[in-house]
Specification:
The structure is a homotrimer.
Chain A: E1 2-16, H1 18-25, E2 38-52, E3 56-63, E4 71-82, E5 86-94, H2 115-120, E6 125-134, E7 140-148, E8 157-159, E9 165-177, E10 185-196, E11 209-212, E12 223-227, E13 231-245, E14 248-261, E15 268-280, E16 288-289, E17 294-295, E18 304-308, E19 314-318, E20 320-334, E21 341-358, E22 361-377, E23 393-409
Antiparallel strand pairs in A: 1-2, 1-23, 2-3, 3-4, 4-5, 5-6, 6-7, 7-9, 9-10, 10-13, 11-12, 13-14, 14-15, 15-20, 16-17, 18-19, 20-21, 21-22, 22-23
């Protein structure tokens, strides 16, 4: 079976402070890079999946939005119907750090993911072996596995004697699910966590690096801890909750990360979270998948433009309309200069409008207003003494961004 | 539905003047590069397309002939059966600059496209939104849209505050179509044009750059205006006509381009065209698609080698044989040295022989004899004064090339 | 039809001498590179193949294990049922140098191929035109063709006036095939050879370069002749034999290569071979394809884990288990220093265990113990006189490696 998706995005960086250009360029004053508007493909994927008799499955999905630089996404083989382990997959697959990255980009309410989700679980997929399961009553679902922390989607292999493994898991529950209405009401709660062994001696650096774009598609990461020096291990813990009441959905997540450091550096603690509310003006609801604990496919009451009736006639339809607002925050600062971590503190509001044309296609509008505060900035052109005005100081900038996406999946 | 094509090409640069090596290297004497013979893949594509209920469509087709460097080609989503707009597509799609680039490489009579077509509409596809339509009687068909002028097939995105938009359209008519013979006789006429706003301040330069290989696959472009300095806008106008009389087809196109320049530079005018005649020795004809105003799939009377008869027997067949000759010209020179544009003047005759094995496969032979005249050449090794013999002078070279292609599509 | 495969590999370089690091880095002391463990994708392929009425076929298969760097593999068009030529393919396809590279990686007994196979026929596929045939009694099968020697899977084209063609063929026989038992007993014998015209003047060097990894996936080639200076031609001859007796299979190949050199250099002779025995503990056998003279798909008596019975019940199964041992040798040294070739002499034992889960999936374990002897090493940091201890000397190193592969194909 061939599947895929097309996401065409436009982003406008309406307004931003000068410091934002420094953050966008990587934190050095010399590399400051004014964020540029953008028009193009965010995702252009297709691939194959299927099953092998009697109980194996496989999937390869390629991302071609990079043009010359293809990357793989889901790429695994595995078994279903195993005792105890249920589904077991080996290969490139999403790490279960909380909810928002497990939700497919096909179903997520906002165009891009929140700071803390993007930072702690950058690009989500890693090479690993993981078990996926749920109980018969669909009250609980879980997934857990061992992953190597390096993203190999662009190289294909991790070539290093220093493996950087982690043990990651998520346990979710759907304590309320209104079967009668077809799932228009439900509650979800989950905890997730990872215990990761980073290696400061790894050839291309340790994997304790947490960074995020501004919940929009910019060239640089506006929050960025860099590779945290002498990071020897980290532990992440997350909690998440969803309440759905018909057309209204309320979602919140909080994640906290502790980084153990050696060579005399102090440990660092980073955290963040988000809450959002979404509402269908046209009365639909966000469906829920109780086997995976994630959002499911949204079906408008009426498709956009042509609706073929059973009697052979054609009606006009206007699709489904949804509004949403999100508040997201992340604090990636901890400690004192020359010892601590100063990736920056992000706070942003996102206002969204989604127009669903049919179950496989929609358009999304986002307006984002946010601030990155107290990110460390360096000014290499200044000599160490006397330090220049921007040398190793904490800087702050505000921004506003608008974005639009056209999307189909198949 | 999965579709694609395989084109295997061989090119031999039989004979060329020394100046051709300078043109092939980019116009600097120091970079002169003798054109080398070539053997490999010209196109190696596959992808997926389909429809989404009730009236949406999508397509992704990848080009893998570059080996490590994949690129996308058609990559869009859209609607059919819309009021007024009929078919509306968003994404990477061909700009309607005249006929020859709208014709699929699967059906085109010659291996490579004429100078003016390749130059004004390099690689044809751009990110845009376009409407495609035709009238019920199939007397008229049209397409028009707004495109960003940068080709993003290798990068995926245009990242620049300076959008370079254009409004492009083509209106075509099929005033004569002989239904009785199944379309063995028809006449087609069309006009096309674009109004393009180039931006001299764009990060990677303005899009007023017009260049072409010698209607064969060379490393360099033998006609090349470079990015025309201070180009602020351009307008293209094209006319085209096709007459088909059974096995004989006559085709001609002419296009003219005006480039508006600022900073005190004179405007530049470039133009070119081609005519060709093709004839099926075996009596078939070139079919026409009246909904898009382009060549359609050619069906031999007998497939090559095995022809399964209705009675279960097998006959031998020799496919279809077609001969063709094309004259192509382009004048990309205008003005005086240090102010004008001197991309060169191309004139070439191409002689073609096509052997169609079945509706999806054929072999093509081309012999090309041409001249590139008065292209500006620089000699950086010479100091500005006294200027060397090749410094900022207009040079001319003759060449002859032969090519062969093996092709299937599926 | 869409097909493909997923191979996930892990390699551990358990133990190796210091000289191995020098070989792994390319033979210069300054570039010594300790072999690093590896985890990732060895093959991640999918593509399309099909037939075109009445008697044409095509195939495109892409390799995406390189992440950003896609490559094509089989990419051809062709005919079946031709008189005399039988099947004729044009495009990228395997050269018939002996058995082990013609065997699919889906069916081969060991994870990686032997020294001599990898070296003489690196990456196996080349652009060419080749005929494939067999007689009605399936006693003989053959393939022969003309290929260009440069691998174009990463670039797509060979751009060079200096073609480097070769004429290659293989004639195989299956003198014994036990039809009654469904092919549990058979004998195969074949000879293969090539006559290759390399060109010392080719832009990117001549194609007389023979090199191999240590029958495992390392970064560098541990045996490597480099491009043999002034190589003007080479001729390869190989013999191969297979005996299958139920669960037991015995296989051996020997290949010898003569390199003709000009400019006063002596000709060089390289050779190598391997033998292996494999045995199914669970009683299955290695099937044989008498039309191509290669291994065919292995079918376990019972699939792993779930076996659906005809009566609708489910049984548990443990798949098929196979053990194997291989001895491989290659001698790529010939002549005297400053005139001869000193790519090194490899000898290795590989012990394998294969767990077949079903006809399309299996797991492989390999343990390798080997030695690379007398490879020439240079020490650029040493001045020519007095020569340093490692300057232009022949060095030897031992190693042991373990590997594991998870594999599905579809």
């Amino acid at each position: 079976k061939v599947s895929g998706r097309v996401h065409v995005d436009g982003w406008g960086f309406a307004d931003s402070d000068d410091n934002i250009s420094i953050f966008n360029g990587g934190g050095d004053v010399d590399d400051a890079l004014d964020p540029q508007n953008r028009l193009g493909f965010r995702r252009l994927r297709f691939g194959v999946k299927g099953d092998i008799k009697d109980n194996m499955i496989y999937k390869i999905e390629m991302e071609f939005a990079g043009g010359n630089d293809s990357e793989f996404r889901d790429a695994y083989l595995g078994w279903e119907e195993l005792p105890f382990l249920q589904t077991l997959l080996i290969g490139n697959q999403k790490r279960p750090y909380g909810l928002d990255h497990l939700n497919s980009s096909r179903f997520n309410v906002f165009i891009e993911r929140p700071f803390v989700i993007e930072s702690f679980n950058q690009d989500a997929r890693r090479l690993g072996i993981a078990s996926y399961g749920y109980d018969d009553a669909q009250l609980f679902n879980w997934r857990y596995g061992v992953y190597n922390q390096r993203n190999v989607q662009s190289l294909g292999n991790y070539i290093d004697d220093h493996l950087q493994l982690e043990l990651t898991g998520r346990l979710a529950s759907t304590p309320w699910y209104d079967e009668v209405s077809g799932g228009r009401g439900y509650a979800h709660f989950a905890i997730s966590g990872t215990v990761a062994d980073t290696d400061p001696d790894a050839i291309n650096g340790n994997e304790a690096r947490f960074r995020s774009r501004p919940e929009a598609r910019s060239s640089g990461r506006w929050i960025d801890t860099g590779r945290i020096a002498s990071a020897d291990a980290f532990q992440m813990m997350g909690v998440e909750a969803v309440i759905n009441l018909g057309a209204l959905q309320l979602v919140g997540e909080y994640q906290t990360m502790n980084v153990d450091r050696i060579d005399g550096f102090s440990d660092a603690n980073l955290d963040g979270g988000y809450v959002y509310a979404s509402y269908f003006l046209t009365g639909e609801h966000m469906p829920w998948d109780r086997k995976s604990g994630t959002l499911a496919r949204i079906t408008p009451f009426q498709n956009f433009w042509s609706v073929r009736r059973c009697d052979g006639g054609v009606e006009r339809g206007w699709g489904a309309w949804q509004v949403a607002v999100r508040y997201s925050t992340a604090d990636f600062n901890d400690g004192v200069i020359n010892d601590g971590v100063f990736g920056g503190q992000g706070d942003a509001w996102t206002f969204g409008l989604n127009w669903y044309w049919n179950p496989n296609a929609r358009m999304q509008f986002n307006y984002i207003n946010g601030q990155i505060a107290n990110r460390i900035v360096s000014d290499p052109a200044d000599p160490p003494a006397p330090a220049g005005p921007l040398d190793n100081t904490l800087q702050t900038g505000d921004y506003s961004i608008y974005g639009v996406r056209f999307m189909v999946d198949f």
